[in-house]
Design goal:
about 350 residues; Immunoglobulin-like; 3 domains; five-stranded antiparallel β-sheet; five-stranded mixed β-sheet; Ig-like_fold
């Protein structure tokens, strides 16, 4: 046995005889801190994360990085002894930020970082409502009172959005009834809690209409059975060289096998469901985006992707129970396509732990 090998064996033996040094480790409770409902006019709100040093050596908090300037942490760099606890104050500034919030914080301690999360809901002041949502539309406050599409040459399409705030004390389900054939409108989300924010997305498809000039369309928004009228205005124009009849026929059509995926009994594990999309049109379907606001939701599809006419694409939608914050799953996927009648498809993800 050569001398180098003897030295290595001796060093290994010494390491095995040395006492194990336990790394300092902070255990946080909770990892998701709910501020609840706060009023903007009350000013900054403070809540606390609690942490215990579960290790065997002292540890300290070096810094905290947040995902928004509205959130700050009051740091105490005093070493935390093994077994000791601390309270980390988190300050949220609601000024000019109405509605729900969901922010991330990263706490750094030596070479270790911890990911924490705060949520809550802000009831805005009347001043903020007037600035951000100046239009009163029954129980809603809106950014504008109509969709203005402007000039629409034959063969074109354009999407406009209105943003709203639910000023009522009730959860409201929004849908649109009896829409004109050349307009597609959706509410994202379609179920809006009190003090909740929503977006009305309207797409005007100019190849579905043959008359020209400026006109208004009446869109009927159904809010828990109450019909609220919203106007859409446009100016249809000629488009030299565009074959109107041909244009009508050459469109992709996205058909979703399911618009609601059930994840019953997902517990703490990962549960997977299959989502199938078929293109029944005669133009290539482009899927440009797949998004979810829920960190527990993932999709194995890589966008952008294309689907030829008559073909289908399958993707796995996964819910990671260990990351899901609630015992009742009520999430969604938004799938963006170039289907003029279905540009923003909402797929509901529901279930119980």
């Amino acid at each position: 046995m050569d001398g180098r090998r003897l030295i290595l064996m001796a060093m290994a033996a010494i390491v095995l005889l040395l006492p194990q040094i336990a790394l300092a480790q902070l255990e946080w409770s909770p990892k998701l801190l709910d501020f609840g409902t706060i009023k903007e006019e009350d000013g900054k709100a403070v809540r606390h994360f609690m942490a215990v040093n579960k290790g065997e050596t002292p540890v300290r908090i070096d810094r905290v990085r947040t995902s928004c300037g509205c959130t700050t942490a009051e740091i105490d760099t005093t070493p935390i002894q093994p077994g000791d606890s601390i309270a980390l104050p988190i300050v949220y500034n609601p000024a000019g930020r109405p509605g729900p919030f969901d922010k991330l914080l990263f706490v750094f301690s030596g070479k270790t970082s911890y990911k924490l999360n705060i949520i809550g809901n802000v009831i805005p002041s009347e001043r903020t409502l007037k600035l951000r949502y100046p239009v009163v539309m029954e129980s809603f406050r809106m950014t504008k009172d109509k969709f203005v599409f402007g000039d629409m040459p034959i063969g074109s399409r354009r999407t406009k959005r209105l943003y709203g705030y639910n000023a009522s004390p009730d959860t409201v389900v929004l849908k649109f009834n009896d829409l004109p054939e050349q307009v597609v409108v959706r509410s994202l989300p379609d179920t809006v809690p009190p003090s909740g924010l929503f977006c009305l997305s309207a797409t005007f498809i100019a190849d579905r209409r043959s008359d020209f000039g400026t006109a208004d369309l009446l869109l009927k928004m159904d809010a828990n059975g109450r019909i609220i009228p919203i106007t859409a205005t446009y100016t249809m124009k000629e488009n030299p060289g565009y074959d109107f009849q041909s244009g009508l026929e050459k469109v992709p059509v996205a058909v979703f096998e399911d618009d609601r995926l059930l994840f019953e009994g997902y517990g703490e594990k990962r549960m997977r469901r299959l989502l199938k999309i078929k293109n029944t049109g005669n133009e290539v379907l482009r899927i440009s985006g797949i998004t979810s606001a829920d960190d527990a939701v993932s999709v194995d599809a890589v966008v952008p992707l294309t689907v030829a006419p008559g073909k289908s694409v399958e993707m796995n939608v996964t819910v990671d129970g260990s990351k899901e914050k609630n015992d009742v799953l009520n999430s969604a996927l938004i799938i963006l396509t170039n289907d003029p009648a279905n540009p923003n498809k909402l797929i509901r993800l529901v279930g119980k732990r």
